[in-house]
Specification:
The protein is of the alpha+beta class. The protein is built from twelve helices and 17 strands. The protein has two domains: about 250 residues, no CATH class; about 110 residues, no CATH class. A hairpin with a 5-residue loop joins β9 and β10.
Length: about 375
């Protein structure tokens, strides 16, 4: 998958303000409900790192409180002072509330909760949200937000890109169910990959390709730095962010769909990939596995370890394959150093081609399970 400069620049600048569109949240959540309609029933859902006044996460879960069968919805926000807003103005929702405090609005986070029908209209929805200021700035690492985490059943959010590693560790530490947006590259993070390997974390229902169209807050938008964007029907600035995927430990049906595979012999005869037909399946120089550069070229009858692109995780069925590791862990770079006298960059697998050693992109190593579907 191509490296995304927008996401990288955001991380470097601590500009973490990309908001998720309502339709993307709805589409993803619906996949879990199709697999298990009771996924959220009688659960407390926490939406940390949120901006409840305009967050689509808060809006979606509040509007669908009864349909999902939620017990409690909690949404927390960072204080304005922790963001890069240039011309911040409190929303009318806040300023028209008797709780509004001019001294707290910039330095305190806020908490929104939904548990009951407060206005007596016979239903529980977004109009029943109750709020107050937090004691601190709303950082997810604060004691009060940690307490909310411990009280919740499922954590759902789009955390700050620059804090993804720390946020994921924060969630895993509490042993909670979660549905979280993150950068595709997080698959190989040391805080994430061991759980993916052990089938404790997996990717969400949305396919990897195409990135995700996300909302850029107008207050931090700089048209001199961001060239590719469009305005939606509400005037929101929409930017396509490549490399954004869902991470979760909630079950969905797509991850249990096995790949339909040809045999190795048939791939070598009929694969649509000409280079594979001509070159065949090449063994790595510095690890005992064959290289399979395309997910649709995985040979269904091969019993040994295979290196596949990291994007294979989008097609991974745990009943069909097991994950052994990835090239950053497994590549024997002493072999390369002996052959070349040096190594460049991090550990990677190499193949030999026309007498030269070729360094490949990151690979996952998989093996077919003995009893396949």
């Amino acid at each position: 998958m191509a490296k995304n400069s927008n996401l990288g620049a955001a991380k470097a600048a601590k500009n973490d303000e990309f908001y998720t569109q309502y339709a993307d949240i709805q589409k993803e959540v619906n996949a879990y409900l199709e697999y298990n309609p009771d996924t959220f029933r009688d659960k407390t859902v926490l939406l940390p790192c949120d901006d409840p006044e305009w967050s689509n996460f808060t809006r979606f879960f509040a509007q669908n409180f009864e349909r999902l069968g939620l017990k409690r919805l909690i949404s927390t926000s960072y204080a304005v002072e922790s963001k890069k807003y240039k011309n911040y103005q409190p929303t009318l929702f806040e300023t028209e509330s008797p709780l509004f405090d001019i001294d707290k609005t910039r330095v305190k986070g806020k908490i929104f909760e939904l548990t009951r029908d407060t206005n007596g209209n016979g239903r529980i929805d977004i109009d029943d949200l109750e709020w107050h200021y937090l004691e601190n700035d709303g950082d997810f690492r604060s004691q009060e937000v940690c307490k909310l985490r411990d009280e919740s059943d499922i954590i759902v959010t789009n955390p700050p890109f620059s804090l993804f590693r720390e946020f994921m560790a924060w969630v895993i530490e509490a042993k909670k169910k979660f549905l979280i947006l993150g950068n595709f590259n997080a698959i190989t993070y040391k805080e994430v990959f061991p759980y993916i390997k052990d089938n404790m974390i997996w990717t969400g229902n949305k396919r990897f390709g195409g990135g995700m169209d996300m909302i850029m807050p107008k207050d931090i938008f700089d048209p001199n730095k961001i060239k590719k964007y469009y305005l939606d029907e509400h005037g929101n600035i929409i930017q396509n962010i490549m490399g954004v995927i869902w991470f979760t430990n909630l079950e969905h049906g797509r991850r249990h769909e096995p790949l339909q595979l040809m045999s190795m012999q048939d791939n070598l005869r009929y694969s649509k990939h000409r280079d594979l037909r001509e070159r065949g399946y090449v063994h790595y120089v510095n690890y005992n596995a064959i290289d399979v550069p395309y997910f649709d070229a995985v040979p269904g009858d091969y019993e040994g370890p295979m290196g596949v692109p990291v994007t294979f995780l989008d097609k991974y069925c745990p009943e069909q394959f097991e994950i052994i590791g990835h090239s950053l862990q497994l590549a024997d770079m002493s072999v390369i150093k002996k052959a070349l006298g040096k190594t460049g960059g991090g550990p990677r697998f190499y193949i030999e081609e026309d007498g030269k050693l070729i360094r490949l992109y990151e690979r996952l190593v998989i093996r077919k399970k003995q009893q396949t579907i």
